[in-house]
Amino acid sequence: MLQAPESPLRAAAAPTAPPFPDADLMRVTDLLPPDERARLAGIRAVLQEDIRPLTAAFWNREEFPFGLLPRLAALGLGRLQTDGSSRLFTGLAYMEVARADVSLSALVGIHNELVVGMINDLGSEAQKARWLPGLESFTALGAFALTEPDHGSDIAGGLATTASHDGDGWVLHGAKRWIGAGTIADFALVWARDTADGAVKAFIVETDRPGFTATKIENKIGLRIMQNADIVLDGVRVPDANLLPGATAFSQANELLRDSRAWVGWQAAGIQLGAFDIARAYALERLQFGHQLAGFQLIQQQLSEILGNAHASLSLMVGLARIQEDGHLEMVQSAMAKATTTRLARASVALGRSILGGNGITTDYEMAKLFGDAEVLYTYEGTYEINSLIVARAVTGKSAFV
Ligand SMILES: Cc1cc2nc3c(=O)[nH]c(=O)nc-3n(C[C@H](O)[C@H](O)[C@H](O)COP(=O)(O)OP(=O)(O)OC[C@H]3O[C@@H](n4cnc5c(N)ncnc54)[C@H](O)[C@@H]3O)c2cc1C
């Protein structure tokens, strides 16, 4: 019987490695300058050889692998927003993390796009000095707290958490749901509505402040390594210095979401390449009717479809990185990329799961982990439907939200 792989890279590293071991059929890494190309190859090697084999056990236990944070920091994955990396490199790095493990790519992506990026772009000099060094080295963690129990897709208009100015600080009341790293972060970036002017503003809320509680959401079918939390803010008091001076309207949250939706597109490309890696290795090993699965026409068609989906997604993201680098990225392009790549990702992991037959049902063979994780990509950072509505509104001039 085929054994669960000890090293998922086994097929690629063996002397009998198949052609295109890294599956870069479109030679996308050739678009990077030599220094970034070499750095990306180094990141991929560590992720595939050292980190990926460890993740299924943590995923099964819904446990966060704190011991891996120094490894991620050593790869520079805590400072992608501040180290001058190109958008294409940053995106391909996100993709490689997702190819190894989607939960870790959620941690790295939220960390860079919505925590480091938010403090760097919208924070005060004092806030940057206090938090960025620790964040960049993964010795500090933050959470991005926007979604609420009663407001997900309609958060822009519906946000109900309140912030009231009182003396030399603010008092926050409300609840947040699904907040990534909420139970393990040092602080949460909480979006709340100012009771005085009705504007949505953001605050750094240290997680040890009285009135702040975070409860882990358990029994998820995907992203099980990421610790998502229900957060309650019961009269939490923060000083004036904790208001982010650049975050004084929901439009600033939208600018962050524009970029973080793009990050999910890279995740979707990565999960599909991961599904291809697993499915190809399995199809080359597994014998039925005395032949390798990889030699059957229907299996070949499915492998080809996964790879085509992955490269359609990747090509979309390479195009998006170009306009992002030029400073022309708008929500419509991010929404189109997010919706399209996650739709394809869902199809690709279903094909991959099928190629593994019964062994695709257990995470011992990895693919089932990807199958669950793809569902989260489809839904978070704006659901597939909401992102579709954003695209169609932009090209018709008609809003169909309500
Ligand atoms: C694992 C995970 C991690 C997350 N991490 C974070 C995080 O770190 N920080 C954070 O702030 N949030 C986070 N989220 C929240 C996420 O962004 C929301 O789940 C998402 O925006 C959808 O909101 P909802 O779950 O309330 O669904 P709902 O808004 O209740 O939607 C339910 C269904 O109705 C559909 N729908 C809603 N409105 C319309 C409409 N007008 N037209 C057509 N269809 C509609 C939706 O597409 C969906 O299919 C996370 C979610 C998950 C599952």
Report on this structure.
- Its cofactor is FAD.
- Keywords: FAD, Flavoprotein, Oxidoreductase.
- Residues 35-135 form the Acyl-CoA dehydrogenase/oxidase N-terminal domain.
- This is Glutaryl-CoA dehydrogenase.
- Residues 1-21 are annotated as: Disordered.
- The protein is of the alpha+beta class and 402 residues long.
- Helices cover 51% and strands 14% of the residues.
- The protein is built from twelve helices and nine strands.
- It has helices at 10-13, 34-61, 69-74, 87-100, 102-122, 125-136, 155-158, 250-285, 297-325, 331-355, 367-379, 384-396, and strands at residues 142-145, 162-166, 169-180, 187-194, 200-206, 212-216, 228-239, 287-288, 291-292.
- Strands 1, 2, 3, 4, 5, 6 and 7 form a seven-stranded mixed sheet that branches. It has a two-stranded antiparallel ribbon with strand order 8-9.
- Strand 8 and strand 9 (291-292) form a beta hairpin.
- Helix 2 runs parallel beside helix 4 and helix 10 (331-355) packs antiparallel against helix 12.
- The longest helix has 36 residues, at 250-285.
- The protein is globular and about 75 Å long.
- The termini are far apart.
- Mean pLDDT is 95; it is low at 1-15.
Ions and ligands: flavin-adenine dinucleotide
Relative strand content: 5-15%
What would the average pLDDT be, to the nearest integer? 95
Gyration radius over CA:
21 Å
Please report the number of helical segments. Answer: 12
> Between the first and last Cα atoms, what is the distance in angstroms?
54 Å
- Total beta-strand segments: 9
Unreliable parts: 1-15
Helix vs. strand class: alpha+beta
Oligomer: single chain
